[in-house]
Design a protein that fits this description.
Blueprint lengths: L19 H19 L8 H25 L7 H19 L6 E8 L7 E11 L6 E10 L2 E15 L6 E5 L5 E4 L1 E4 L1 E4 L7 E5 L3 E3 L2 E3 L2 E4 L4 E4 L11 E4 L3 E3 L3 E5 L9 E4 L2 E10 L7 E4 L1 E12 L2 E3 L10 E3 L2 E6 L2 E3 L3 E3 L3 E3 L3 E3 L3 E2 L4 E2 L5 E3 L25 H6 L9 H6 L9 H5 L5 E9 L8 E11 L3 E3 L5 H4 L4 E6 L6 E5 L4 E2 L6 E6 L15 E5 L6 E5 L6 E4 L4 E6 L2 E4 H7 L2 H4 L14 E2 L17 E4 L4 E6 L3 E3 L1 E12 L3 E7 L5 E10 L1 E9 L2 E5 L18 E12 L1
Helix pairs in contact: 1-2
Length: about 725
Amino acid sequence: MENTPKRKQRNKPGVVLFTAVAVMLMLSILLTATVSYVSVNRTKTNDNYKSKQAYLTASSTLESFINQIQTDTAPTNDPTAKAQQKKAIDNLKKLASANSGKGTTTNVSYNGSNGKSDNIGTTKITVAQEGTSAKYIVVTCETTYLGKTEKVAAHISTHPVPKPAEYTNTIELVGNGGAGYDNLYVIGDMAGINNTTGKIYRFTNNTSIYGSYLMYGSLEVSTQPLIMLKPSLVDEKQGSTVTISENLDVSNKFRINSTMARADGYNYVNIGQKLSTSNHMDVGSSGFDVDLFCCEANIGGNDYTQYGNFYVYKGAGAYNGDATFGANGQTINGSLYVEGDLNVTKSLKVTGSVYVTGTITGKDKIVCQASNIHEGAVLSKAGRDAKPQIPVSADAYVYYPEDFFMSNDTNVTTISDQYQAFYDGSNTKTFNTFASDWTNVDYTLTELIDLTGTGAKTPVTSRYKLRITSSCTWASDLSFNDYGNGSRILVDVSDSSGDIVIRLQNGLNLGAEWSPVIVVRNRSTIIDTTTGDRKYNCYFVSDSGSAITLNGIDSVTGKSQHSGSSACNYSFKGLKVFDYDTYVRMFDSSVLNNTKGNPGLPQSGFVLNPTSVDVAGSYRPKNSSIIFLFGENTTLNATDQSFFQGSFYSPQAIVNIATSGLGGLVVTDSAGGKMTVQCCAVGVVIANSFGNANTAFYVYTKPSTTSVMQNAKGGKDDYAYGYELDRYDHY
């Protein structure tokens, strides 16, 4: 299978996180660091050596300065952090604009290795304007060593840059209501990001998540779900975490395991309030510790087994950090930390130590070396023992599909002209319009494709009942006799087509007898050099009307406001949507040569790779250029083995995918492990509420960085204050 090029790490402008005082302090620290770097025997006096030493000191100091800024870079939506970023950049500009733009200079002298006070060299760092504006800054490091001087400089541009959206969750719920998951399997992360208190989420019928889970509210577990902490699909070097802002109540077997050894920053469960168990909970496994944090614990019923440390720390309100352990069989293969009082009513085995700030009741029931039980202890809460923070709110959305439909601001949208053309009468085309043009009917496409990832291309032929080459409406005017029974429809995106926007006619209802197969081919040649994504995309949009009004950005929430969006309802049975490059690799020639029919199972040997690294023998799709934009009060119901390869951005809509999806799909992880799944979707699903049924998987793949979704969490009203490193110079 072809392995696509690695997803490049974005080299976006950095965000300086230090304050004005820290700017000067860091200069001092770096200069101090050069002292040991250049301390040498004074007898080495040849000019070549002196010049090299001066150059190495200057360049090392400068690169350390720039690297430290880059190390502290962290895009954020947190208002406090944004304010710090802006303040830091403003202070850096003040340093540069001082002395009429000549800037601020710091000098340091250093001595020989013999400790004598005689000066053998100096380094001078200057932060100054480049030109007439502090927007452009040059940082110069000039070192003189035993009479030889070398100078290096970094040229940087300081300016606010629009913060692009990041999509890290396979399924993300935006609404303020709870939800129930029935046989839901997620490969990747999952989140409920609305921080309204009191919501309750429920896992039933073996729901499983292979990644991280973040939710605001409480989780009730009743039928043996699994959370398997896996390497992050966003950053393979990191693991995963479980964060629940309120309570976790386990009334049936619940497992939270990991495939990675514990390390700082991941492999933990963080519960904002109370943990209650009444029937078997497993956390971690031998060699794969998972730490657990909560603010109150009541362990009862049958069996609690953990590999990792158990922490009960005080929380807000009535949560005093108390813990009760009364389960029939309870073992902590690690240490127990309790900031309140500990009550042990049944035998509790602890292989590490027990630290309790308050009192211990039932100390005789703790199976642990007596010397390792500490009552009245002081807890450090540092390093591994520090409780992870539950963010006050998740990364909020600023713009909604309605903004993409109606805004005239090109910093927000690129598709409003195509969308509004459906309502001003300038685009009346439907799928049936293309069916009336014989060049688009019974369309055959032959293309040279590297199927093996070796660079050798072979001709691949695929056939379609209908070809779509520009924006149009998917209406109910196609002939069933011609286009029912699983007709293959090709949507062909190119430079000449630009973005193709397909409006779904309100009320579009296609039963199982239709079962259309949509294949989106993207051959636009304008490529984003950072991500490799093509400029143009294919959008399926709701028929939300032209009466939408955009009422500006709310001054309190920072979110766009709109009104007048028409409600839409859609129902599909057996609908399948594929990316062309995946489709022609997933199926063999016997499927590709048919213009109708259910494509069936993927061919033997096809392995889908949703990770960010290459895995031998697998195919890793590029970021998805297929985007579903559903406006407020839209409801999608997809059943009967429907499958979607694309991303849903529907933060005020309902997405119900009650389907067993595409059967027999083999998925790999970064280590080459494989599992065969029934797959409903490959992409991300963002919705106000989400419904599912049957045993079905959802697999993570990012949306295209050139799509309008990149503006959903940012755009012109959301900036990261930072810099761009333009170049280094050596004089």
